[in-house]
Write a structure and sequence with these properties.
There is one protein chain. The chain is α/β, with parallel strands linked by helices. It has a single domain, classed as Glycosidases (TIM Barrel). 33% of the residues lie in helices and 13% in strands. It has 18 helices and 15 strands. A 6-stranded parallel beta sheet has the order 9-8-3-2-1-15. Strands 12-14-13 form a 3-stranded antiparallel beta sheet, with helices on one face. Helix 6 links the parallel strand 8 and strand 9 (236-239). The radius of gyration is 22 Å and the shape is globular. The relative contact order is 0.12.
Length: 473
Amino acid sequence: MGFRNQVQLITYPDSLGGDLKALHRLLSTHLAGLFPGGVHILPFFPSSADRGFAPMTYLEVEPAFGDWAHIRRIAADYPLVADLMVNHISRQSRYFQDFARRGRGSEYADLFITLDKIWPDGHPPAEDVAEIFLRKPEHPFSDIIIQETGETERLWTSFGVRDWSEQIDLDVHSAATRELLTEFLVHLGRQGIKIVRLDAVGYVIKKPGTSCFFVEPEIYDFMDWIRGVAASADIEILPEVHAHYSIQFRLAAHGFWVYDFVLPMLILHTLLARDARKLADYLRICPRRQVTMLDCHDGIPVQPDVDDILTLDESKTIVDRLVAAGANLNRLLSSEKRHGDFDAHQINCTYYSALEADDDAYLTARHPILRARRASGVLRGPAGRRERLRCGGGDGRGAGHQPAQLQRGGSGVGGAEAGRPAPDEADPLSQRLSRFWRRPECSRERWGAAAFMDQGEVGLHLDGRSKNPHGRD
């Protein structure tokens, strides 16, 4: 079983020490015993962009991070989570490079989505394009000039900028794509990976006249197929879908584990507005087979994730407050997914900075309801404005894939590898967090959303107003 009701670490392969070998050493020393729920290592494969999320293959480890032996050693000690970007693959992959050279004569041509697969004449009506949930300006297409023929092929590319996409969408209906995804999953299973997160899975179904995002019921056909393949490799899957919270409920109803992308904003609202009623209401109804988190490599989710849980004014109050303090935003491009001119999709800053560097509020937020913890969440530390501003990759997506400097925060463990003090030696709050998470009750199976509602030791009163954990106003 990959999923455990215990604390899990989320980290880039180079955020804690610089590579996989250093990460394993830290997990065995300074961080020993803190993450019985496992370790999620964000993409460690060769990649051409987007901080690893434009993978060229899943059959290799990026040499700068290490090799498969390092992955297997970590997997021997922890339930290990890896990412599979089921929607796309790198423009620099050998699969796409062969297509770019030979066009439809390539053995890999059927991996990709030429527009005649969606619209028989290859020309999407304007009204269909207007319905698509966009992650880049104007439309999700890219023109590719085939080297051998000079012909132009227009392909589906969900992410990128207007005239360039480093991530090329895969046709998940084709036998070629399914064979490739099967090869990748089987290989990951052989390396000891126990959970695979399906990154960007909401974009895989393209259907005329729809938003082409989480298209039901077709999305479940694909997910049932890939769940079966993963199970044959002794892997569990975790869909990653940034969308209205009701989609997580529907995924859970179909038997999938889900992320709770509502909690980060809801915890902020609770602590900043000093009102826990909405948090209590949500915890009574939220799915129980879910991974909870505060820190996400994409940023703090805003809309559409928390729509209809927080009001527009409540969300705007939090966003405006954090932007004024120096955070930046990932913005929605599709007007139907936003409220008027309010286009905040995700907030880019550390959670410690979001709580205005208040140690007590941070410890309260890190109550054991929160299982998955990003590297910056382990170490605390505000993000400098320069680091926040250089997060962006120019495509409206990479901005949330935050750099190692931002994840390490102000007291980075990576510094211990360079002769600086380890976190427990340098940072009183890190010491408090370490002691807190080593307490026996933080690993009990009984901890969960319902149990959290009954706990008073951190001073959060869910039947009314929240109270400062140390009684100070």
